[in-house]
Amino acid sequence: MVVFLLIFALLALQGCASTIPPASGPPIPLKEANLEAVFEQNEGLEVTAEDAKEMRDFYRLGVQQKAKAEKLFQGKAYPEALKLYHSSNGSFSTILRYLDQDSAEYMLFEDTHILFFPNLLVADNELKMGLILQTRGEEGSARRCWKRGLASVQKSLQAERTEWGLSLQEKLISLLPPKNK
């Protein structure tokens, strides 16, 4: 039943979605596309994993889980933050199987556009998970997170060049040893 609903949601969203052209030109400034704006757009009714049926539900769930993880990360509650980052990436991976391009103006409904950055959000989660693992002395695991994050941010930048993505890419590159970049 869940598979049927996912396929139906995919077909419904594809009918509304347009093809995203390759990124070119100057990057979209941080004031237009940033993490706080994504959080703000997805506030409100909380989505649970059990209630997520459509792609927009999985996106909202992933963003809401990430917002909670960010608060825990800032409060140094690392084990709980790590779990939420993993869960958030799980929600985004559901989306990325069907819609794998980021967009600064993704049409959610008629005349309703949102910041749609599942790749960039995964990359940021991988950055934070790597930092948590580094504090535990798990350097190898941290580097694997940062490599996955770098691949995700590069995927995002192929579709939508943003200052946010370029900054995140720079942070991830700086954390990786030169031979692993």
Topology:
Elements: H1 2-16, H2 35-41, H3 55-74, H4 78-96, E1 103-109, E2 112-116, H5 118-135, H6 139-159, H7 163-175
Antiparallel strand pairs: 1-2
Helix pairs in contact: 3-4, 3-5, 4-5, 5-6, 5-7, 6-7
Can you describe this structure?
This protein is mainly alpha-helical. It has a single domain (2-180), classed as Serine Threonine Protein Phosphatase 5, Tetratricopeptide repeat, CATH 1.25.40. It is built from seven helices and two strands, in the order H-H-H-H-E-E-H-H-H. The protein has helices at 2-16, 35-41, 55-74, 78-96, 118-135, 139-159, 163-175, and strands spanning 103-109, 112-116. The chain has a two-stranded antiparallel ribbon with strand order 1-2. The longest helix has 21 residues, at 139-159.
Largest sheet: 2 strands, antiparallel
At CATH level 3, the topology is: Serine Threonine Protein Phosphatase 5, Tetratricopeptide repeat
Q: What is the CATH architecture term? A: Alpha Horseshoe
H-E order: HHHHEEHHH
- Give start-end ranges of low-pLDDT stretches: 1-21
> Total number of helical segments?
7
CATH class: Mainly Alpha
Strand content: 5-15%
Subunit arrangement of the protein: single chain
